[in-house]
Amino acid sequence: MREALLGLAFAISAIGRSSATVELKPSAAAFDDLPAKFAVDVGEAGICGALEIADPADACSALRRGGVRSNGNGNGTDLVRFALIVRGNCSFQDKIVNAQTAGFRAVIVYDDREKVDLVFMMVDPKDITIPAVFISNEAGQSLKEHAQVGTGECCIYETRIETGWTVLAISFISLIVIFGILALTLFVPRRLLYWRGRTHHVKHVDDKIVAELPSFAFNSARSSDKYTREVCAICLEDYKDGEILKSLPCQHEFHLGCVESWLKKGGLFCPVCKHDVRTKRACQETQRETGL
């Protein structure tokens, strides 16, 4: 049960879709975005810097150097630079690598089309060492205006979003886990009981029944009228005077040791006539009780 719940928690945490928010300061305007798949995360604390429009705007070739610039407040503090890049004309990989080579510390790519859904930028992680996010065209135009003025900060913060597909996936996985737990709870105990029953239900005549069967010593002088035969049908050895025989309810007799071993090891029937020893005994007891 514990392992199943831990597996469910892991699946839910893995499905939760990583996202980020781009925020302009001091205006506090915020825009939703999606981070590049397999690129560097911005971290829980986020990252802030001065926003600059890439030159060229699509960043499909070498960019003018980025790096750091003074924040303009006279305290000697510098801001790292973010590159604002328009989508199109080359891959996301090329755009991010070119900005990274020019010294920018983060990349914001905005869509070149209006009113379309955000997409994940697929990149090769071995070439990427800076965070990169994707925003809508509308958000990009707002950031572009902000960058042209050249004041304030732009910050990227990590957030978590839950989409309809995420909720559906979580519900589906939850159902699988619940049905799995129910199956284990109901099916496994039944199978255990079944196999235990098979293990303990050994087919043999009860020891008490075997002990109650009549025994007597063999006497060859009376063999013609007392015994059905003079050879044990189990071991095929002749009876000898003084040997102890045991008689079954069907009146067939055998060596004591032979017939006891036969019945205790799974022989439910007489070796000669195949009559069930337990049934015969039950019939005799019924007749005895009814006086027949």
Automatic annotation (TrEMBL):
<keyword id="KW-0862">Zinc</keyword>
<protein>
    <recommendedName>
        <fullName>RING-type E3 ubiquitin transferase</fullName>
        <ecNumber>2.3.2.27</ecNumber>
    </recommendedName>
</protein>
<dbReference type="GO" id="GO:0061630">
    <property type="term" value="F:ubiquitin protein ligase activity"/>
</dbReference>
<dbReference type="Pfam" id="PF02225">
    <property type="entry name" value="PA"/>
</dbReference>
<feature type="transmembrane region" description="Helical">
    <location>
        <begin position="164"/>
        <end position="188"/>
    </location>
</feature>
<dbReference type="GO" id="GO:0006511">
    <property type="term" value="P:ubiquitin-dependent protein catabolic process"/>
</dbReference>
<dbReference type="GO" id="GO:0008270">
    <property type="term" value="F:zinc ion binding"/>
</dbReference>
<feature type="domain" description="RING-type">
    <location>
        <begin position="232"/>
        <end position="274"/>
    </location>
</feature>
<keyword id="KW-0863">Zinc-finger</keyword>
<dbReference type="InterPro" id="IPR001841">
    <property type="entry name" value="Znf_RING"/>
</dbReference>
<dbReference type="Pfam" id="PF13639">
    <property type="entry name" value="zf-RING_2"/>
</dbReference>
<keyword id="KW-1133">Transmembrane helix</keyword>
<keyword id="KW-0472">Membrane</keyword>
<dbReference type="InterPro" id="IPR044744">
    <property type="entry name" value="ZNRF4/RNF13/RNF167_PA"/>
</dbReference>
<keyword id="KW-0812">Transmembrane</keyword>
<dbReference type="GO" id="GO:0005737">
    <property type="term" value="C:cytoplasm"/>
</dbReference>
<dbReference type="InterPro" id="IPR046450">
    <property type="entry name" value="PA_dom_sf"/>
</dbReference>
<dbReference type="InterPro" id="IPR013083">
    <property type="entry name" value="Znf_RING/FYVE/PHD"/>
</dbReference>
<keyword id="KW-0479">Metal-binding</keyword>
<keyword id="KW-0325">Glycoprotein</keyword>
<keyword id="KW-0732">Signal</keyword>
<dbReference type="GO" id="GO:0012505">
    <property type="term" value="C:endomembrane system"/>
</dbReference>
<comment type="pathway">
    <text>Protein modification; protein ubiquitination.</text>
</comment>
<dbReference type="InterPro" id="IPR051653">
    <property type="entry name" value="E3_ligase_sorting_rcpt"/>
</dbReference>
<dbReference type="InterPro" id="IPR003137">
    <property type="entry name" value="PA_domain"/>
</dbReference>
<keyword id="KW-0808">Transferase</keyword>
<feature type="signal peptide">
    <location>
        <begin position="1"/>
        <end position="20"/>
    </location>
</feature>
